[in-house]
Amino acid sequence: MYFDPYREERRIVPTLIFINIVVFIIQQIFSDFFIYYFSLIPLFVTKKFFLWQFFTHMFLHGNFFHLFFNMFSLFIFGINLESIWGSKKFLSYYIVSGLGGGILHYIINPYSPIPSIGASGAIYGVLLAYGLTFPESILYINFFIPVKAKYAVLIFGVMELVFGITGTASGIAHFAHLGGLLSGLLYLKLERFIYKKVSSIKKTKIYRNLEDMENDRKRERLNELLDKISLSGYNSLTEKEKFELDDLSRWFRDKE
């Protein structure tokens, strides 16, 4: 796929990658300060109300490889989604997934003093959206195992749930990954629900407008027939007009 970072519909992914790289560089200089204030430390959220950490932890990373693989995944999956969705929707989805990952991690560990950092929650949300949007595309797990995207999402979701419950691969915020998946799914389901409701309301309004137009047309025709009766009497109506008058009168009576 040809990548042009200046195309409007693809401007958010390269911007997010740039921000993460810049933050990572600054983080190396002010490491302790950044970890204390901007990583997600559940204990600090509980005791000190550092609520902004749900957002800021998404832009910190533990080391170069942590940053590289997250940004590589963001580029591979995100660039396609942003091309279809547009920048605004992609950005809102990315942030919601990242927040959801942090929130679930906090719910599971509300008094943990261990910092959690990384965009992985948001990336897992992006992976979910990619799997739902391009279900038949092939992903290579560990770079050599081909799996359809729709199955890869399911595999990763089950793995994170199992690892989170069993404590396997400790040191990784598995529930943050799972939270990114779940919040991304909730976002898409809620968006679809709202879209259906709005579409239904619009259709209802259109139907009502058409119904009003039909009412006006019939009212105008009824008035024409009544005017003719006023001028020339009922017998001046043709048989067709008499039937029409009867139908229109009955129709308006039923509407009352």
TrEMBL record:
| Keyword Transmembrane appears in the UniProt entry | yes
Report the membrane topology from the UniProt record.
Multi-pass membrane protein
> Which residues belong to any copy of the DUF6576 domain?
217-250
Q: Indicate yes or no for the key word Cytoplasm.
A: no
Q: What is its main location?
A: membrane
**In this protein, which residues make up the domain named Peptidase S54 rhomboid?**
51-188
- TM region(s), chain numbering: 12-38, 58-79, 91-108
Q: Can you name one GO molecular function term for this protein? A: serine-type endopeptidase activity
Q: Which Pfam families match?
A: DUF6576, Rhomboid
- Tell me the keywords, alphabetical order: Hydrolase, Membrane, Transmembrane, Transmembrane helix
| Protein's cellular compartments | Membrane
Alphabetical list of SUPFAM superfamilies matching this protein:
Rhomboid-like
GO cellular component terms? membrane
The UniProt entry's sequence similarity note says: Belongs to the peptidase S54 family.
**Name of the featured protein:** Rhomboid family protein
